[in-house]
Design a protein that fits this description.
The structure holds two protein chains of two kinds. By secondary structure, chain A is an alpha+beta fold. Chain A has twelve helices and 36 strands.
Amino acid sequence: MMIKNRTLLLLAANILLALFIVLNIDHDDQGVNLSSKFSEMIANMTEIEFAQPSNGQKIVLRKAQTDWHIRHPISWPVEPISMANLISKISHLNPTFIGPLNELDSRGEIPQDYGLDENSSSLQLISNNATIKITLGSLSRDQTGRFILINDKGIQTIWRGPRQIDELVNRPINEWANLTFFDFPLYAIDEFQVNEISSDGTMVTTSLSKQNERWYFSRPTKSPANDEEVSSLLHRLVSEKLTSFIEPKSDYNSNPILDITVRSMGKSHGLSFHRITQSDATRVLVKLNNNPQTFFIAAEFLENFINLANKLREKRLFSIEMDQVSRIKIKDYNRSLVLRKNDQNSWIGLEDNGTNAFSFLSDTEVVRTFIHNLNAIEVTNFIHFNPSSLILNQQGLDRPQFSLEIDKQDNTHTSLLISKSNTDTSLWNTYVTEQAFICLVNTPWDRLLSVEATDYKDRRLLPDQFSFDQIILKSFQDEKELSTFTQESMGEAYERLLGFKADSFIDLSYNNEGIWVDGDWLPWRYSLHFETLDVNGANSVVFHLTDRVGGTKWFAGSEELGLVCNLPISIIDELAKGLAPEQTDP
Amino acid sequence: MKPFRTYLSLSQAGSKVRLLLMICLLAQVFYFSMREFKVPLPAKLIEFSIRSIVSEDIEISIMQPHIVGLSKIKFDGLLIKGREKILFQSKNLSLSLRPKWPGKDPFSLINQIDLSGAEFFPDERDQNHFGISGFSLKHQHADNSLFLKTSLHVGQVRSELNLEVQNLDQIIKNKWSAKSTGESNWGDLIDSLFSLKESIHSYSKSFPSIHANFRGFLNHTGGKIYISQKEGNDERNQEIKDFLTELSWNTESENEGLLGYRFHSQAERLRLNTKSANLNFFYPVIHGNGVINLNTYNLLSGDIYFTYKNLSVAGAVSGNLPPLDLTLHHENAQLKAHIFSDTNGTKISLNAEKNKDGWIANGAIKLIPQLYDLYAQLPQGNLRIMDGQELYIRLWENPTPTRADSPIQFLVSADDFSALQTPPGQFLFTGEIKSDFTIHINDAYGKLGLSEVTGTYYQKWNPAKYRFLLNGSCHPPDINNWLGIWWSPLWRDFSFSSAIPVGNFSIEGIWAGQPGNSVTIGQVKTKELVFRNFPFNSCLLDIEVDGSSTRLLGKKMMHNYGSIKGNLSFPRSIEPSNLLLGFSFEGDFPVNEAKGILGEGVEEGLSEVNATSIYCEASGEVFKQDEVETVDHNLSWYGLYLSTDKPFSYAGIDIDYARGEISNSNGLIRGKFDDFGFAEGQGKLSFSDTSPYSDRISITLDLKNVDRQKLFQNLSNSPQWQKKTSSQKDDQINEDSEPKQATTGKINLSMQAEGPVSDAKYFEGTGNLVLHDVDIGSIHLLGGIRNKLGAFNLPLPSDALNFNELVVPFALEHDRVIFDRARLSGPLSKFEAIGEVNWVRQEVDLLADFKLAGNLNIPVLKQIVNWADPLSKFSKLKIQGEWENPEWSVHLGAGSLKP
């Protein structure tokens, strides 16, 4: 008996110590274990199945390499964010353990008490060697949570999870699918063709291709396209979202109304659009040439492709490099002005007022600005293509107010006829002869197309080859020196004054006392002397200046040149600095 | 079996069982006690062992290593350095080891790694920027994988990682093979890591505070991580809400040196706080992909797409912005960006490209401003930023630039467009953008309200220098909302005719630069203009604004009565100056019509002046009335020269002409009119404040040959005089009963007095009044001398009551005018009086000697008459009572004679 007692005592001591050790070592609770299991399952799962027995729906997502795809009831890529959302929801389940399912009996409960039956929705996470199934029960009594049954390797336990888990499990297919159906990067699209097919079977084809990052029509005509409109159209295509999928067994037979073929990264991808009318509602069905899955999109999407040749046309009238231009001719009724580039790359102007003509040296920068301004003209609206002489007559283009001709060195020629619009006086009818279209332009041609020689005359005011060492600003009345500009003393200011030129010409005559400008008499107040220190050097060049007029005007006159001009702001700024100490109140 | 044998066998078996139980018990006790038993290990030995398996560039220091129990090695500290920089440090590190070593590689011995208090690249500048806690690395030998679980923080980003490292043997194999080929790159790798850390460090400062959960896997070919945001307690203050990301990568199968990546992120809301506004992006989505060269860690190509459903802006700018789609493509050092938007009020298609020559851009923006609800909180109010039918912006390549290095040409046009609630107008701008993003508007045209302007503009950056050059007609109130609160008060008092002012301006400065850095130079020329109800026929006004002041220089301001030129100067509020206003002007000042143009104070001062036009030359400065300007330290001053040959009136008193000066300096007003015409006479007047502490003034007045009647007529027009003499009859001074010729007369008055302006009855002084060239006896002086004396029926010669001169030297003592030798004289007689007049009570009290022939200039006869005239010897005239009609009595000896 003693022996037996000792054995039992040892056995009891072993058991107690083992229990003590186990209890002290295993701190993990059920929740921590489940969280770890989910974490490991998330890393390993290869398939996810959502079942809604109540409405006979089952969605199966399967991983192929690293990407997920819907495999049932349709075949389509999964929207990555949907998957991230699923992982997030599972990661943040934080369920509260209630008890094993098999202990319900002992507690006098049945699974239905927790809303668990054969119609319960479920979510199954499947990896290569494990499966975890989560079955949704009813809401908890406080309505803040939902009972869930977790089946892990046959061990079924009931938990209380977040109430919103049913939103995850009962999601419709559209919320799992990647809804963009033409997922290509914009920059990778090199060509596309759009066939508009009318009900009588006639087809209008518009095709464009990208050359040196610019889009050009290849059909219906070979002409430049508006890059931004093309990019915008393609962006709409690649970002358009389908509205619903068509069940695999559905059968819609109709002829396409629009075909789009896109060539990207060396491959061709086609879409055909079919109009389906069902119970007064019109929907657009889309078929892809590389995927049997068909789907619907919003009917309005097709409007983007109507009259494409017009929509995508380039609206910029000119895109001219100055070096390409050899001659410009502007005509204002009977008066004309021609600017021609000579062999020395100088521009020679010829003004012809109908009775007299004279030539002059033009200012290269003025010509540059003129061409630059032409490049900023855009069509507001295309109104006629290939107009008849009757239409030209109706638009006032048989006797245009202005005409503009531009000859390029490659012997190409552009000519425009311009008249005020009959309907909107702020717009100009403009006929581009070479491209044979009439368009409306809102650029004020009358301000741009001057035939006055003074607007193009060479702005330089100092004689060629004239060199000087200092510039002296003096009072006109008493010849008192107000400021002296030299390289040493004024540096940058002197540098700027070296390019002494006119901003615009006011008058091609000179008065010893002053000038009239806009009805105001402005007497000469200063004189500006460009002088050389070398006594044997050339005579100084003298200009007379008025007072500065406001912020932007300071008039200079030269008796020798016989003209009066306004000075450019860069010169005005420097002269004002030279005068600053002398400024007095009026 | 026999009982004994049975007992023995049982006994032996029982002993064995007990022995076994005892061993088992002891083993448990040993295990339990050894679980916490620590055996120190030599740190150098372990460091040496580790050094044999890692690169020489890596230096590892271990603090107090020891074995705990039977399967765990613990370190009290671990420090990993590379290139003299700390890569990693941890306070506690424990390694759980497998009972047996499979011998494949050193890592297979490790079962689990736990560490706490760890930091990557610790930095004194920003401690705990990269930290680790709850690190656990579990080796799942059966699956040939590691499971990493840890919390990591990078700046404000906290994350929990649950990552499975799969195909461990492949990874180790690749790593080992990589080590053999690329061992010498450890140093570069460390440098790269530090450079990466610096980038993350600076970049993560702008990260919103977020607590994220990372779950996923990685293996030898790639990996995928799902990132989700942990729900916070205070969702309203969360900068990002419901953030989700999927990130995957894989090594390119055809080229192992390349890593392809892809990510897709979304949030329900993202809030970015900037200086001027808080941006709330709703449902922002960003996804992208790319390829990285693993050898150089360079991004070879990449695409990013960003969009959102709605952008709500709050703060200085508030409202909602429509969704935008932004795509970026990077390849071979070339970056392309597309921006798209396509909503009811917004059509945007912009393409920008950056290559080695800089940026080029083309595209179009078409907005319907009236569909935007953007507001700006400005000092002048909460204003709608834009409104109207259309705003169109077009960008192109610039084939013929007018400036060097200007690859972009643009056009802006707007129709019926209003910015900041200005009147709607039309705008057309064309210009260029340089590679450094300097914007030049070469040709701007704007027509809004009554204004129509052309000009140019440039905008530079770093600093944000700008310059407007504008020409055209400008109706200043049209642009009130553009130019802040200083602009509209300038024009509040102006009303413009249909001829809108024409001007040209240069306005330059630096946006958000030093206060007052802007400089404005301009000229305004206008025809009809009304300023404070005064019409000018034309004005030519120069305007100069710089850091110190705003100066308005009126060069030629024509009005119906002449012209004025002058200037006003207002110091900028940013200047530490108490000067409020400096002014100078010269010209014809039409007082009656223009007295209001210099402000209420001046208008009040001139309220008593009635003049068509006075020539003025004035200058002065007005300082703030604060602690700087005290009575002792009065900085304000002005000097005013007035000259007019035309009659005017002051306080109802007609002045024929005047020339003089008024000045105010050190708080003392002085006036000096050396010549003014008054009541057909001439005068001199000077006055001055005697002290800045009181309202006392000193007056010196000298009037010559003033027409007595006109003087009193003048005085009667003065409200002040009327107040004092309201009870008097006009006939006292008008003398209607007498022929006009006889009742005129001239007055000479010289007076020097001093007293408070506020109460004339406290003046004191002396003076002399002479009334001459008049039959004084016939005028209504003291009730009429002739009448009063005649009533006594005194036996007087017929001419005895003829008087033609009154000389009154007087002293003024408050309300009393005292004289001791007033003399009224005529051809024959004279009065000599002493007494006083109380001009406040309007009473007289005089005692006069009447000398019948006292004024004869024939010496002998005069003595005879005086001797023969008993009246003169023994009688006194007493005049008492109200000065309008005093009581006259003749005192003969002790008795009195009544009329």
